[in-house]
């Protein structure tokens, strides 16, 4: 298997990453939300300075693809004018905050997310590594437990706030007024002890013992993200988390957009969406059962055209299962094990059951037809 190139940082707007189709400029919406004007503005900027394609990342971010180097300054200026850019690249790198999309105006969630972002921008904020992140999951029940985060804010079964270190099944009771300070203290604890670790769960799995107070059982998530109408608006899916600028502009006409880590957007207050090209509204659409990275040719490391292969495999993936199609062993689209993972190699495709893209394969050198028979 060819070793993937690890770049060692998460791209942002101020630290874009070069890909096979130009620069990838990642916008991190503050508090997990884009106002209608911001979403429309991103669509306009991406059309002017990128190749017209936009990705939704598994961290709830928006990636403008295909940006030309001579367009970058104008793009960043445009994003800055809409208050979508941090003061500097280090702050941007630290501000890795996922927010439950199901908050109501006036609830604490929005305030926690804003206060956490402010704390991460302070000069004395913990120097966390780039992939380290936070989840503000403070609705009545958790919905972000399967998404990547290292420090989580959740509620216990009685509705009390708890601070959670990812990888540990109990949380620390905290008060609303001190929750952000407690989160920063836990982040600093991680920084002080981490050694070579970049993620909380790995540090704990390596034997590190949390400070005292993590004694309250966490609730277990039973939420399964699906397109459909919710009391807060319409949840819509985007195949492979990618959309064209026209699709984003059309959605922006319907309402503000709340980001999710599920290749879906929540269109605020939408009760009856018109048909929008490229948007999945059927919760049984087979394309919701596949995830696929950018792959070749847009990613320089891609060893196959991941998305066209994934489209052909999707109808064969059983309902309730998930197939992760990866263009190389790096596994960008799904960092966790999946029921089925297909990894492109120089000799065809590897099939891995219940594993990650880099795990030892159950079968090698397969064609797409072989994979259909195997699943
Ligand atoms: S997993 Fe996909 S997107 Fe990530 S480096 Fe490999 S080919 Fe590129």
Outline the structure in words:
Helices cover 24% and strands 24% of the residues. The chain has 375 residues and is of the alpha+beta class. It folds into three domains: 17-85 and 230-268, Alpha-Beta Complex (Sulfite Reductase Hemoprotein, domain 2), CATH 3.90.480.10; 91-217; 286-374, 2-Layer Sandwich (Sulfite Reductase Hemoprotein, domain 1). Strands 6-7-8-9-10-11 form a six-stranded mixed beta sheet, with helices on one face. Strand 17 (290-292), helix 8 (306-313) and strand 18 (323-326) form a beta-alpha-beta unit. Helix 1 packs antiparallel against helix 2 (72-81) and helix 4 (108-120) crosses helix 5 (179-193). The longest helix has 15 residues, at 179-193. It is globular, with a radius of gyration of 20 Å. Residues 1-6 have low confidence and may be disordered. Residues 4, 293-295, 299, 301-302, 326-328, 330-332 line the site of iron/sulfur cluster.
Helix run count: 9
User: What percent strand?
Assistant: 15-25%
Biggest sheet strand order reads: 6-7-8-9-10-11
Low-confidence stretches: 1-6
Please, how many domains?
A: 3
Bound molecules: iron/sulfur cluster
**Shape descriptor:** globular
Q: How many DSSP E strands?
A: 21
Query: Percent of residues in helical segments?
Result: 10-25%
* Secondary-structure element order, N to C: EEEHEEHHEHEEEEHHEEEEHEEEHEEEEH
| Global mean pLDDT | 95
The assigned structural class equals: alpha+beta
């Amino acid at each position: 298997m060819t070793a993937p190139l690890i770049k060692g940082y998460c791209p942002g707007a101020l630290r874009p990453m070069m890909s096979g189709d130009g620069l990838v400029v990642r916008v991190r919406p503050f508090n997990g939300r884009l106002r209608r004007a911001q979403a429309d503005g991103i669509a306009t900027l991406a059309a002017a300075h990128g190749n017209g394609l936009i990705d939704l990342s598994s961290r709830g971010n928006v990636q403008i693809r295909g940006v030309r180097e001579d367009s970058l300054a104008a793009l960043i200026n445009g994003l800055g004018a809409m208050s979508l850019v941090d003061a500097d690249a280090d702050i941007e790198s630290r501000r890795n905050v996922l927010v439950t999309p199901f908050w109501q105006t006036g609830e604490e969630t929005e305030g926690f997310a804003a206060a956490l972002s402010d704390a991460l921008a302070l000069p004395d904020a913990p120097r966390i590594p780039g992939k380290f992140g936070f989840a503000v999951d403070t609705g009545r029940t958790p919905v972000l437990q399967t998404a990547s985060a290292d420090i989580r804010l959740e509620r216990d079964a009685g509705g009390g706030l708890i601070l959670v270190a990812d990888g540990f099944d109990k949380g620390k009771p905290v008060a609303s007024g001190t929750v952000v300070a407690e989160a920063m203290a836990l982040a600093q604890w991680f920084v002080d002890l981490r050694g070579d670790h970049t993620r909380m769960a790995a540090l704990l799995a390596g034997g590190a013992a949390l400070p005292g107070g993590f004694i309250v059982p966490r609730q277990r998530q039973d939420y399964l993200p699906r397109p459909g109408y919710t009391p807060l608006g319409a949840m819509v899916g985007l195949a492979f988390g990618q959309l064209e600028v026209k699709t984003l502009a059309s959605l922006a006409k319907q309402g503000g957009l709340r980001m999710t880590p599920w290749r879906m957007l929540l269109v605020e207050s939408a009760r009856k969406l018109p048909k929008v090209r490229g948007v999945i509204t059927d919760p049984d659409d087979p394309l919701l059962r596949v995830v696929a990275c950018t792959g070749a040719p847009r990613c320089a490391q891609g060893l196959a055209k991941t998305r066209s292969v994934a489209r052909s495999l999707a109808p064969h993936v059983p309902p309730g299962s998930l197939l992760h199609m990866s263009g190389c062993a790096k596994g960008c689209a799904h960092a966790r094990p999946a029921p089925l993972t297909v990894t492109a190699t120089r000799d065809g495709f590897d099939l891995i059951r219940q594993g990650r893209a880099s795990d030892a394969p159950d079968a090698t050198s397969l064609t797409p037809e072989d994979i259909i028979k195997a699943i």
